[in-house]
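To the wet lab folks,

You asked to see what we're planning to order before we commit. Fair enough. Below is the target structure as tokens, and below that is the sequence we designed to fit it. If anything looks off to you, flag it before the synthesis order goes out.
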């Protein structure tokens, strides 16, 4: 059937002059065969060109899709970079806040230690000052105690320290012009043994 179609195409192309008789040695037949083979080659070339065009269009579509994907990936990378820079700013602010908190904590600790030290010194001073001295003398003695405590001194026995303290209190009372009330010494009661 294909052969019939081919011969019909050849008849339409060459008209009545067409003959399939190769053996006759007809020069027109040779020309026709050359034209037909040229037409076949041209048709094959046209098919190759169409196939190349189709491949080029597919490649162009693929390239367009790749460019679209690359554009979306670029946007994603830029968004990620922006978020990274933003989070870096938050991290820097957090570090500054934590350092400030650490400084405030250290300052509070130092202040607390200083307050506790002052309170301990006051308690020691109140305990060491005899109750018969008035408040003014106690304050001056407290000031002297803190100054005295910071000077390096040799070891003083407890009896000498108490005597010295008593002498200092008496001198302070005399300077203020206050008379020191006499304290009644209580005698221990004898208890009967039963």
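Sequence we intend to order:
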């Amino acid at each position: 059937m294909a052969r019939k179609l081919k011969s019909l195409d050849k008849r339409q192309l060459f008209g009545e002059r067409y003959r399939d008789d190769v053996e006759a040695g007809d020069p027109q037949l040779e020309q026709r065969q050359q034209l037909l083979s040229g037409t076949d080659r041209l048709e094959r070339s046209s098919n190759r060109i169409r196939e190349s065009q189709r491949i080029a269009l597919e490649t162009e579509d693929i390239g367009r899709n790749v460019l679209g994907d690359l554009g979306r990936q670029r946007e994603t990378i830029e968004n990620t970079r922006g978020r990274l820079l933003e989070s870096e700013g938050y991290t820097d602010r957090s570090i500054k806040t934590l350092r400030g908190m650490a400084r405030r904590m250290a300052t509070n600790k130092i202040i607390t230690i200083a307050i506790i030290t002052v309170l301990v010194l006051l308690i020691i001073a109140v305990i060491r000052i005899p109750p018969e001295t008035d408040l003014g003398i106690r304050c001056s003695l407290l000031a002297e105690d803190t100054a005295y405590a910071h000077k390096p001194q040799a070891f003083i026995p407890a009896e000498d320290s108490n005597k010295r303290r008593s002498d200092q209190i008496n001198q302070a009372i005399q300077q203020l012009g206050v008379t020191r009330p006499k304290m009644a010494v209580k005698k221990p009661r004898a208890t009967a043994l039963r």
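Structural context that might help your review: The longest helix spans residues 27-128. The mean pLDDT is 76.

Thanks,
Computational group
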